Amino acid sequence: MADSNKTAILSFDDKELRLPMYSPTVGPDVIDIRKLYAQGGVFTYDPGFTSTASCDSTITYIDGDKGELLHRGYPIDQLAEKSHYLEVCYLLLYGELPSGAELEDFESRVTNHTMIHEQMHMFFRGFRRDAHPMATMVGVVGAMSAFYHDSTDISDPWQREVASIRLIAKMPTIAAMAYKYSIGQPFVYPRNDLDYASNFLRMCFSVPAEDYEVNPILSRAMDRIFTLHADHEQNASTSTVRLASSSGANPFACIAAGIACLWGPAHGGANQACLEMLREIGTVDRIPEYIARAKDKDDPFRLMGFGHRVYKNFDPRAKVMKQSADEVLDLLGIENNPTLQVAKQLEKIALEDPYFIEKKLYPNVDFYSGIILDAMGFPTAMFTPIFALARTVGWISQWKEMIVDPQLKIGRPRQLYMGETYRDYVNVEDR
Ligand code: SDX
Predict the structure, then answer these.
(1) Residues tagged active-site
(2) What is the rounded CA–CA span in Å between residue 184 and residue 206?
(3) Ligand 1 binding pocket includes 202 (Cβ within 6 Å)
(4) Mutate to test the pocket of ligand 1, among 54, 240, 306 (most ligand atoms within 8 A of CB)
(5) Distance 101 CA to ligand 1 centre (A)
(6) pLDDT tens digit sequence for 300-331
(7) How far is CA 18 from the centre of its chain?
(8) Rounded to an integer, what distance in angstroms lies between the CA atom of residue 430 and that of residue 266?
(9) pTM of this structure
(10) What is the distance between the terminal CA atoms of the chain, rounded to a whole angstrom?
């Protein structure tokens, strides 16, 4: 825990409270309000947690004003260019970039856990074919606690390690199976001679009737998309995983809770909603109509893929994703992709519009990702499952950090109660 080098003085009514403050290695100071209710008899009030630090962490740092994202201190643009997803997984899990031998061992451990229990195949068959793959993933990942019961003893460091590897290794298999099931094709087993991203692409797109060669352009782009989604501080789904874990629930149940939260269109579901919005706009000449709707207070429409709770500058992931979209579509020979043209023009117009400038609304990670995934052949319903697949290492890293935190307590916020005060029951005949 950071040392208290300052004190905040809070005075109200006839009270004056002295609250310790802590300084981070980088970022805003915090005021420790844990004794506020005991000493002052009041709660803080922060719906949506816009000004609340829920924990201390050493994993990811975001500077929203600079548009900076660091994983264990390394900037995301350097990791996206020079590293690869499983190396980033190691960095997030263990805090340092691995040596060659450490990386080889880690990749081998992940590779050898990619298959799921054969009995789980039956579990998929209980879903309708048209079930959204996110619904399937929530169900199947939650059910892992029924199949891998040995990994549910969270007090055992070794079992925590096994559960972490199992989840990172099996998420691509589960996501690919959810996709295959939704299109009525047979499940494809993982292969140990393929890298993580190539394995996922093959499990999604190969069919027994013919050989399948992974396109190296696509596997590199897939791996980069995984890296760009790996972790992102205390976002809604990570906070969900932390809150679920604070009760001592098993890691599979907690990750299933994170998947459920990520599904929302304000969060990870925005990548699907964004591509559907770009398709609905259709042509550049219809952009002004949608910009007007986004600005209209009486219209619930929001520009999907735009805005962020933390970034008040470009989301650095969006910059890398935009560059990757250009590269992938060019390499695939997809000239003048209309959706990409609409996205680029929409970004240009929005960033010149006073409304977006004043509210500091920029493209976020979800704005360009769908264009690449669409070009790779994924249906929009698979966009958020891919986000969930990639974010699993972030959820797990934050979970492991929290479990060993000596300050770990069950998360239990309070409220500003605005309901009825005490009143006696009235019998129905007297109402
Ligand atoms: C992710 O937290 C994370 O780190 C998330 C994430 C991660 O990696 O985990 O980065 C992934 O979830 C990215 C965000 C994906 N969501 C979308 O693209 C959906 C569209 N964006 C918005 O719904 C919104 O911007 C949020 C939810 C992302 C952020 O909402 P906030 O921080 O609660 O901001 P707000 O709703 O209070 O908006 C502030 C103002 C409002 O106007 P006023 O009420 O002040 O007049 O900006 C407006 C909003 O109406 N606004 C938008 C807008 N986003 C905000 N107006 C039009 N279009 C938008 N997209």
Answers:
(1) 308, 366
(2) 13
(3) no
(4) 306
(5) 42
(6) 999 999 999 999 999 999 999 999 998 899 98
(7) 37
(8) 46
(9) 0.95
(10) 56
